[in-house]
Specification:
The protein is α+β, with helices and mostly antiparallel strands and 376 residues long. The protein has helices at 119-130, 173-185, 191-199, 210-215, 240-252, 282-298, 321-329, 355-372; strands spanning 8-10, 19-24, 27-31, 45-49, 55-60, 77-80, 87-89, 91-94, 97-103, 108-112, 135-142, 148-154, 159-165, 200-205, 256-263, 270-272, 332-339. The active site is at residue 337.
Length: 376
């Protein structure tokens, strides 16, 4: 006598987020939990046990009320049976709900909005990179939940470069990017980055929002605060993560800065700049635009046609880090946005945009920066 295994759905783990509304045979209705003390939600990550031999239909019923519902059309859920390889699965957005099927080939299967980057992996990355020759680790401060804000410093050059990621914790591609950057910067046999490190000192913050990352948030920290709206007046009570990083930047100065993010709707990699800051000059702006043009020529995984609108003169939002750093330091400052969907100009039908491709884009960014560093 055979028994259909009991279906169990669980998100009580590092970066997990889902709530089960109903299980009716092989149909599962789910809802994404809101960020703590916030209305934001879109990130999900959950495990299903007892899936083998069943064709399950999942319906995320509250997708239409999420932070960016316009990101769902054309999106495909990521699925893994080993937590290492994450493939896209056919997905549809119908009447405000996100739906997908899975035919179980294994007992366990994981689903996520994008390939996860857990705090466990973050801690392993920090330990591995901090142990490399020539790397200095600094704990710049602590989050509201008491987690470390890690900074890895590499290089001896006079120009201070800041790379920082995951202000919005659900944008996990950003920390995959940082892993790629850190691996390339610590490759002692790489002539491109070794020459760059003679001209610049890198300060790399791979995760600005460890609390939100662990809690399975999309956009906010433990206080429900969007860190990328805190850069003008960060406070110990609401945004110590930003405060400690900005204080460290004040100590070093900033010549070049990249804030690494993910975008829900646009199916491409693109940059956003600092147009509209009070101290805008065409000369500084030209360096930012030159970086984008060079990166587009350097890799098929970047383009300049799609992106955000530009702020009008004097209308830049200085609570956002890219604008704040350009205004505060005269830095060549930019936000890199990567897709939850795919980079449609150079698509991958099996994996879409992925952690591995995010790492390779980091390599391309460093190669372009190496070409430009003398003029920054």
């Amino acid at each position: 006598m055979t028994h259909t295994p009991l279906l169990s759905i669980n998100a009580a783990f590092d970066s997990g987020n889902i709530a089960v509304s109903a299980v009716e045979g092989d149909r599962v209705t789910l809802n994404i939990r809101q960020d703590h003390l916030s209305d934001f939600y879109q990130w999900f990550h959950f495990r299903v046990a007892g899936a083998r031999g069943r064709t399950l239909t999942f319906r995320i019923a509250n997708a239409g009320g999420s932070a960016y519902p316009f990101g769902w059309p054309g999106y495909k859920v990521r699925v893994s049976t080993d937590r290492e390889t994450w493939r896209m699965a056919p997905t549809r957005y119908v009447d405000g709900a996100l739906e997908f099927e899975w035919t179980g080939t294994s007992e366990l299967v994981w689903f996520a909005y994008f390939q996860p980057y857990t705090m466990e992996r973050h801690d392993a990355l920090v330990a591995r990179i901090a142990g490399q020759a020539g790397v200095t680790h600094r704990e710049l401060g602590q989050s509201l939940d008491g987690r470390a804000i890690d900074c890895l410093e590499i290089g001896s050059g006079p120009k201070h470069v800041w790379l920082y990621a995951r202000q919005h914790p659900g944008e996990s591609m950003a920390e995959w990017f940082m892993e790629g950057a850190l691996e390339r910067l610590t490759d002692a046999a790489d002539p491109v980055t070794q020459a760059l490190l003679d001209k610049a000192t890198f300060h790399c913050v791979p995760n600005m929002n460890p609390d939100g990352s662990f809690r399975g948030h999309l956009r906010t920290n433990a206080a429900g605060v969007n860190l990328n709206r805190e850069w003008n007046t960060p406070t110990p009570e609401k945004s110590p993560e930003v405060l400690c990083v900005r204080n460290a930047m004040d100590q070093t100065g900033v010549a070049f800065a990249m804030d690494v993010h993910g975008d829900e709707a646009i199916a491409a990699n693109f940059l956003a700049g600092f147009e509209g800051i009070p101290s805008w000059t065409d000369a500084l702006g030209a360096k930012y635009y030159d970086f984008g043009r060079r990166l587009e020529a350097h890799t098929p995984d970047f383009q300049t046609a799609l992106g955000y609108g530009k702020a009008a003169p004097g209308k830049a939002n200085l609570t956002m880090s890219t604008n704040q750093l350009a205004e505060r330091f005269g830095a060549v400052s930019m936000t890199l946005e990567m897709p939850f969907k795919d980079h449609d100009p150079n698509p991958d039908a099996e994996f879409g945009w992925s952690g591995e491709r995010s790492k390779k884009l980091a390599h391309a960014c460093l190669e372009v920066l190496a070409e430009m560093i003398d003029g920054i």
